[in-house]
Specification:
3-stranded mixed sheet; 16% strand; globular; Enoyl-CoA_hydra/iso; lipid metabolism; isomerase
């Protein structure tokens, strides 16, 4: 499957792994209206694809995403109010640019390099895993425009250090990929983040889908629960997996020294 949304966003699907690529390399994949529309359409497409077990999110060219291309956005200023208009779930389009990856229902691995600024960083925070080049540059540059980050960062960043996010939001300071990793903004470093993201997604896709989904639920819901409720959730999820068909197949594959086969 190869699909292009508004010539800005490309979605491919191979061997149970979907890849969404931002494709406006001559502008460091800056977010114009077509890019925004394309990303939202790609997210919607992911929710409808069957057989997807992992997603890679990456950017073409020298950068992942340099954030909003304000000149392009202001060229259609009449559309600006639509960006902050919430849908029936209370989520507006700019928030969905980050939160929408979670609706794919499978792990999303972001490959970050070059400029990862403003909206680009916030989109990346919506991914489950972020693999970053040591020399990438990250920043929340909304303060340059007298505004705050508003792409659901209060949700996607809830599990990260709040002092780190606050400093970046109120200073606009740029950090390297290596510092971002040290600050907990990235999962790990790689000199080839796109290749590493694809390898990680392929590895995840080879695992029990039910176990992967249970692990995602545990780490998404667990931090919001009281101590006892966390333990109860952990036990409940494990009980649902034990003796299930995928658990039996995983055990058999290990015992027989072969790759597991999950339908």
């Amino acid at each position: 499957m190869h699909q292009i949304f508004n010539e800005r966003v490309t979605l491919t699907f191979t061997d149970q792994v979907a890849e969404v690529m931002l494709s406006r390399p001559d502008h460091h994949n800056g977010l114009d209206w077509a890019m925004i529309d394309g990303l939202l359409a790609a997210q919607q497409c992911l929710t409808q694809l069957s057989g997807v077990r992992a997603v890679v999110l990456s950017g073409d060219g020298e950068s992942f995403c340099a954030g909003l291309d304000m000149a392009s956005i202001m060229s259609e200023a009449e559309r600006l109010p639509t960006l902050l208009a919430p849908d029936e779930a209370g989520i507006n389009p700019v928030q969905r640019l980050a939160l929408g990856w979670r609706e794919a229902g499978v792990p999303v691995v972001a490959a970050l390099h070059g400029h990862v600024y403003g909206g680009g960083l916030q989109i990346a925070l919506g991914a489950d895993i972020r693999i970053i080049h040591p020399r990438a540059r990250l920043a929340l540059l909304e303060i340059d425009w007298g505004i705050i980050p508003d792409m659901a960062i209060s949700v996607t960043g809830a599990g990260l250090r709040q002092d780190v996010l606050q400093e970046l939001a109120i200073s606009g300071r740029k950090v390297s990929g290596e510092e971002a990793y040290q600050l907990g903004l990235a999962s790990r470093l790689s000199d080839t983040p796109q290749e590493a993201a694809r390898e990680t997604a392929a590895l995840i896709a080879s695992r029990s889908p039910r176990a992967v989904a249970a692990a995602r639920e545990l780490f998404a819901r667990g931090p919001m629960l009281a101590h006892g409720d966390r333990l109860a959730l952990e036990a409940h999820l494990q009980q649902q997996l034990l003796a299930g068909a995928e658990h039996r197949e995983a055990v058999s594959a290990r015992m027989e020294r072969r790759a597991p086969r999950f339908d």
